[in-house]
Amino acid sequence: MHDIHKTNESHWKYASSSEYCIQNIKFYAGKKCHIEFKKGVLLLHCILVCRIIRTTGAGETMSKATNKAVKIIRKMILEGVFAPGAHLKEEELAKVCGVSRTPVRDALRALAAEDYVRIIPNHGTFVSEWSGQDIADIFLLRSMLEAYGARLAAQKATKEHINTMRKEVERIDKMLSSGKGVDLEIFLAGNKKFHETLREAAGSDRLTKIISRLISQPVVARTAISYTRDDLQRSNEHHAELVEAISAKDGEWAHSVMTSHILAAFQVYKRHYNPDQVEISD
Hints:
Elements: E1 2-3, H1 9-17, E2 21-26, E3 32-37, H2 43-56, H3 59-78, E4 87-88, H4 90-97, H5 101-113, E5 117-120, E6 124-127, H6 132-156, H7 159-176, H8 184-202, H9 205-214, H10 217-226, H11 229-247, H12 251-273
Helix pairs in contact: 3-4, 3-5, 4-5, 6-8, 6-9, 6-11, 6-12, 7-8, 7-11, 10-12, 11-12
């Protein structure tokens, strides 16, 4: 752990020359920041951010502004305000979000990490786009890999894993049966936690990494916002059945339910977005 006030230029120079170096830096307020250096590409940006926080004390404000920009830009992408392939300009986004350009820049980096946008050096930032075949491939591979993960989870899940998944099922069910409007944030958060816990229960780091790289959050979110209440109910019923299959240590049952779960989501996506009429190949 290094104190930012004590870190000297020679240390930064050494870090930038490393092939791969990770350092933990203590900010002025005692907060920790995990910074990754790859051949010094991020060096200047990281130093700049640290110096701004150190001299202005604006860490909390910048974080809130960045989060605000992330939510607004993500929502506009999902709603189609920014079409796939659209060029996103920082100055215009800053006006739309009501923040300065710096948090917008940070927000775009965060959205790039989630596959909502692509940042092309010397060209700009563009809304990510997928062909119909891309979408079909994503769902097909997910159906295969996540079904395999469900089979493993049936063999290895602990009571803690099962209880966590059951709580997420109950959390979503409570929202759907409340008689109020659908709260998509609750569904997305519960859905994410459920699947993350199931992958953890599978006990395969390699499988988890492959699935995590495969899952495109924009595709997941666009699928979810296309769901009717009945679709959401069916999805959560799949979750409930997965919990039962895993509790019973029935790998084939869990594999079958997960396959249906992912393919049902693909049908919802196709119904709403009709991606070039592409079908999943047998």
